[in-house]
C-alpha cells in the first residue's frame, strides 16, 4: 500500500503517449532513424529489428537523450524538439540504456535513491518508492549490496529498478533481459505485464519469444523505418512453415524481413 | 539533498581525498614547526604557504573524481533525467567542498597542540587567512573536477598535479611586485619574517574575490554537458581578474598591509619592579623575559639613565622602528621552536651590547666592539666566544676589557657613562672607552 497522488490517478488526456511523424534521428553522421511514423498508447510494446535497424537510436531519441534531426516527436502530449523545455516530460520517463552506467561503489538502494533524486521525485516519497522498485525487480535481498558485487543479471534488474522508481508513464527498456537467467526472464515478463497495465512500455530486444510472451504490441524496425506494427498474433500469422526460426513468432519475424528485402 | 550529499561523501573520492590532503598538510606543518612556533598568525600564514603542495594534490583528487565519473558511464542515463546538469553536480560540489574544508582544518588542528600553551595573540586576520586558505583548497578541488571533466583520462590527474605545482611555483615570479602575486596566488607572499607579519584585510578580500571567479570558472567547466561550451569558463576569469587588479592594494598600501600594528603594541609588567615590555605578539614570553631584563636594568642603572626594557619591534619591510627613548633599552625577543624565548642566556648580553653599541638609527656609526666591552664590563667577566658570549673571537675586545677593568672603579664607571652618551648621539665611542676623549 502507498499513497497515490492526484496526478497519478488523473485520466490521460493525450491520445498517444508516443507520437512520431516522419521522425529522423542521427547516430553520429548516420541517419539511423529515417522518416519513422509511430503512435503508441498504454501497453507493452516490443521493439524488434536486426542489428543496425535503429532501435537504440530510436530509444535514445524517445528518452530525450538526443535531439531529433527532423520530423515531429510528441512524448506524453508535449512536443520534443531542440527548443522545448524537457523537464516536465522527463519527470514522466523511465529509461534503461543498452549500456547501463552505474556507480560501482554505490549500493543498489543508494543508486536507485540517487536516480529518484535526479528524477526530481518528492523527497518524502523517495524511500518508499525506492524500496518498492527494488522489491518489484526481485533485488530485495541485495538492496544493500554494492553495485560492483552484482552479477550481470542483477545489474540489469538494478537498472530496471532505477527506471521504474518514478512510476513513469513512458518506460523505455533497451535490451533489459540481457544476462537474465530463464527464471528471471519469466519474472521479468510478469513485471512487464504489470507495468504495461497503465503506462506505455517500449522494450527493445532481440528475443522474439520475450516479445510474444509479454507484449501487447509488436514493432519491427528495419533501416530506420517501421516495417510492421501489430499484435503478437499478427506477427505469428505472417510466418509460414518454410520461414527460418524455431518458433512461430521467429518465423513471422524472419518472414517480414525476407519479404521486405525481396521487395527492396 | 542532504541524503544525496551523504551518499556522495561516502561513495565518491571526497573522503579519501580529504584524508590524503589532511595527512599531507599535517606532515608539512609538523616538519617545519620552527617556522610557525611564534604564534597563531605565523601558523596560519605558513599553512597558507604550503598550499603550493596541497593545491596540486587537491586538484589531482578532483580530476581523479571526474575520471571515475567518466568511467562509470552514467552520462547517457543522466542526460535523460529532469534535474538539470547544473543542479545535478551540486551534491558533488558540496561533498568535495566539505572534504577540502575538513582536510584543511584537520591539518591545522594537528599543529595547534604545539603552540596552544605559548601563543596568545589571535587577531581576526588569522581567521580571514584560514578562510581564504580553505576557499583556495575548495576551489582547487572544483577546478580539478572541471579539468577532469574536460579531459577525462587516466593521465589527467597526475598531469594536473605536476602542472599545478609548476604554475604555483613559477607563475608568481613573473610579477615584479608582490601585490599581484599575492592576489592571484593566495599561497604566495606568506613567508613569515617576524611575529608582527599579517595578511591585511584588503589583501584577503582581494584573494577571496579572485577565488570566487575561479570557482565560477570551475563550475562552468564541470557543469557544461557539451565541451564546445567550455570556453565560457573564460568569462568569469576575465571579469574576476579585472576586478582583482582594480581592488588589490599596491605599493605602500600593500607593504603596510603586511604588518599588524596591534601585534607590535607593547604589553608591560604591572608590578612594582622596573617596567619590562614585550610586543602583544610575544606577550606569552613576558614572564620568561622579565627577570633577565630586570637584571640587565639593574646593571645598567649604575652608568646609564635606563630604567625600562622594551622589546625591539623594528621591522625591515615595511621599515618601522620604535621611537627612541633615553630611559629605555631595547630587547631582541625571539621565540624558539617551542614558542619559548630563544637563547635565553644571551638576552642580557644583547641588551647591554645594544645600549652601549648605539641605536639602529646610527647605522655604520654603531660600534659593536665598544658595546661588547661595555656589556662584559657590567657582567663582570671577560668577553668570550660561544653561546652566551660574542659570536666570534675578538682579541681587541678582550684587551679593551682588561684595560677598562684595570682602571679605578670611579674612572671606569665615568668612561662607561660617557661611552653611553656618545653612542646614543652616534658619536665615536671608542676614543672615549680608551680614554682618548670624553
TrEMBL record, chain A:
The keyword Nucleotide-binding applies. GO terms for molecular function: ATP binding. The keyword ATP-binding applies. Keywords: ATP-binding, Nucleotide-binding, Transport. Pfam families: ABC_tran. InterPro entries: AAA+_ATPase, ABC_transporter-like_ATP-bd, ABC_transporter-like_CS, P-loop_NTPase. Residues 18-248 form the ABC transporter domain. Belongs to the ABC transporter superfamily. PANTHER family: ABC TRANSPORTER, ATP-BINDING PROTEIN. This is ABC transporter ATP-binding protein. It comes from Cryptosporangium japonicum.
Automatic annotation (TrEMBL), chain B:
It comes from the Bacteria. The chain crosses the membrane at residues 12-30, 50-67, 87-112, 124-145, 152-171, 208-224, 230-248. Keywords: Membrane, Transmembrane, Transmembrane helix. This is ABC transporter permease. The lineage of its organism: Bacteria, Bacillati, Actinomycetota, Actinomycetes, Cryptosporangiales.
Amino acid at each position: 500500500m502507498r499513497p497515490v497522488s492526484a496526478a497519478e490517478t488523473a485520466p490521460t488526456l493525450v491520445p498517444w503517449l508516443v507520437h512520431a511523424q516522419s521522425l529522423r534521428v542521427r547516430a553520429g553522421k548516420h541517419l539511423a532513424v529515417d522518416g519513422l511514423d509511430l503512435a503508441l498508447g498504454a501497453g507493452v510494446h516490443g521493439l524488434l529489428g536486426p542489428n543496425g535497424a535503429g532501435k537504440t537510436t530510436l530509444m535514445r531519441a524517445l528518452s530525450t537523450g538526443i535531439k531529433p534531426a527532423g520530423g515531429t516527436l510528441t512524448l506524453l502530449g508535449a512536443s520534443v524538439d531542440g527548443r522545448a523545455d524537457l523537464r516536465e516530460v522527463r519527470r514522466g520517463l523511465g529509461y534503461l540504456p543498452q549500456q547501463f552506467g552505474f556507480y560501482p561503489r554505490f549500493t543498489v538502494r543508494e543508486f536507485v535513491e540517487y536516480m529518484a533524486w535526479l528524477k526530481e521525485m518528492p523527497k518524502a516519497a523517495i524511500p518508499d518508492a525506492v524500496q518498492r522498485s527494488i522489491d518489484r525487480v526481485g533485488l530485495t535481498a541485495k538492496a544493500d549490496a554494492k553495485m560492483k558485487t552484482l552479477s550481470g543479471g542483477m545489474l540489469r534488474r538494478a537498472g530496471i529498478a532505477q527506471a521504474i522508481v518514478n512510476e513513469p508513464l513512458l518506460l523505455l527498456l533497451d535490451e533489459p533481459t540481457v544476462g537474465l537467467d530463464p527464471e528471471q526472464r519469466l519474472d521479468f515478463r510478469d513485471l512487464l505485464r504489470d507495468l504495461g497495465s497503465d503506462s506505455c512500455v517500449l522494450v527493445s530486444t532481440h528475443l522474439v519469444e520475450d516479445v510474444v510472451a509479454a507484449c501487447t504490441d509488436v514493432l519491427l524496425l528495419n533501416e530506420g523505418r517501421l516495417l510492421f506494427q501489430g499484435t503478437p498474433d499478427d506477427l505469428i500469422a505472417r510466418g509460414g512453415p518454410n520461414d527460418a526460426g524455431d518458433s512461430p513468432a521467429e518465423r513471422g519475424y524472419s518472414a517480414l524481413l525476407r519479404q521486405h528485402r525481396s521487395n527492396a | 539533498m542532504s541524503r544525496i550529499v551523504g551518499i556522495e561523501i561516502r561513495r565518491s573520492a571526497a573522503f579519501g581525498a580529504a584524508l590524503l590532503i589532511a595527512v599531507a598538510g599535517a606532515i608539512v606543518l609538523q616538519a617545519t614547526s620552527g617556522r610557525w612556533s611564534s604564534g597563531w598568525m605565523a601558523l596560519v600564514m605558513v599553512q597558507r604557504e604550503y598550499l603550493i603542495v596541497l593545491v596540486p594534490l587537491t586538484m589531482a583528487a578532483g580530476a581523479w573524481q571526474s575520471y571515475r565519473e567518466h568511467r562509470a558511464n552514467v552520462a547517457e542515463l543522466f542526460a535523460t533525467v529532469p534535474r538539470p546538469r547544473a543542479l545535478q553536480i551540486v551534491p558533488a560540489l558540496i561533498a568535495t567542498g566539505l572534504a577540502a574544508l575538513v582536510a584543511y582544518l584537520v591539518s591545522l588542528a594537528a599543529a595547534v597542540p604545539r603552540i596552544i600553551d605559548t601563543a596568545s595573540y589571535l587577531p581576526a586576520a588569522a581567521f580571514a587567512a584560514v578562510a581564504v586558505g580553505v576557499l583556495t583548497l575548495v576551489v582547487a578541488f572544483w577546478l580539478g573536477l572541471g579539468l577532469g571533466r574536460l579531459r577525462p583520462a587516466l593521465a589527467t590527474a597526475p598531469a594536473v598535479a605536476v602542472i599545478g605545482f609548476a604554475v604555483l611555483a613559477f607563475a608568481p615570479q613573473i610579477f615584479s611586485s608582490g601585490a599581484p602575486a599575492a592576489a592571484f596566488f593566495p599561497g604566495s607572499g606568506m613567508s613569515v619574517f617576524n611575529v608582527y607579519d599579517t595578511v591585511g584585510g584588503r589583501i584577503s578580500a582581494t584573494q577571496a574575490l579572485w577565488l570566487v571567479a575561479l570557482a565560477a570558472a570551475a563550475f562552468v567547466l564541470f557543469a557544461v554537458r557539451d565541451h564546445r561550451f567550455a570556453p565560457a569558463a573564460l568569462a568569469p576569469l576575465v571579469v574576476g581578474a579585472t576586478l582583482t587588479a582594480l581592488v588589490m592594494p599596491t605599493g605602500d598600501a600593500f607593504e603596510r598591509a603586511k604588518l599588524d600594528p596591534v601585534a607590535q603594541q607593547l604589553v608591560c609588567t604591572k608590578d612594582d619592579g622596573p617596567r619590562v615590555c614585550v610586543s602583544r605578539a610575544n606577550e606569552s614570553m613576558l614572564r620568561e623575559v622579565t627577570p633577565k631584563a630586570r637584571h640587565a636594568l639593574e646593571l645598567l642603572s649604575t652608568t646609564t639613565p635606563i630604567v625600562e626594557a622594551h622589546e625591539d619591534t623594528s621591522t625591515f619591510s615595511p621599515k618601522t622602528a620604535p621611537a627612541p627613548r633615553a630611559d629605555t633599552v631595547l630587547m631582541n625577543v625571539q621565540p624558539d621552536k617551542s614558542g619559548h624565548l630563544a637563547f635565553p642566556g644571551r638576552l642580557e648580553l644583547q641588551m647591554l651590547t645594544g645600549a652601549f653599541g648605539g641605536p639602529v638609527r646610527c647605522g655604520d656609526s654603531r660600534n659593536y666592539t665598544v658595546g661588547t666591552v661595555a656589556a662584559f664590563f657590567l657582567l663582570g667577566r671577560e668577553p668570550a666566544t660561544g653561546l652566551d658570549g660574542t659570536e666570534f673571537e675578538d682579541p681587541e675586545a678582550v684587551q679593551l676589557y682588561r684595560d677598562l677593568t684595570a682602571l679605578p672603579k670611579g674612572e671606569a664607571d665615568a668612561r662607561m657613562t660617557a661611552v653611553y652618551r656618545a653612542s646614543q648621539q652616534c658619536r665615536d665611542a671608542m676614543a672615549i672607552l680608551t680614554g682618548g676623549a670624553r
